[in-house]
Amino acid sequence: MRTSLAGMTAASSRFEASAGRVAAAGVSGPMPAGTDAPTAPGALQPAPSGGVAMPEVSFAAEAVEQMTAKAAYQASVATFRAANEMTRDVLDLLA
Length: 95
Hints:
Elements: H1 2-23, E1 28-30, E2 45-46, E3 51-53, H2 59-94
Antiparallel strand pairs: 1-3, 2-3
Helix pairs in contact: 1-2
């Protein structure tokens, strides 16, 4: 069950990151306070003006990323439900 929960958390994080990249596509503005140099692909990049520039976002790639994250989340939910049902059956046998 813990593995399923970890899978749901990871898939949710992947989806959220992708949605953030799509939402920030083409946005520029001041660099958020306390932001270090970005290391992740698709992260906000420092612009020469001292602000922030979002790199080009591939909407097709982000759509695939979101569909993959959704499928991974659904698979983790199915695994959690199966583990929960098996645990319930074992407890019924022991009762």
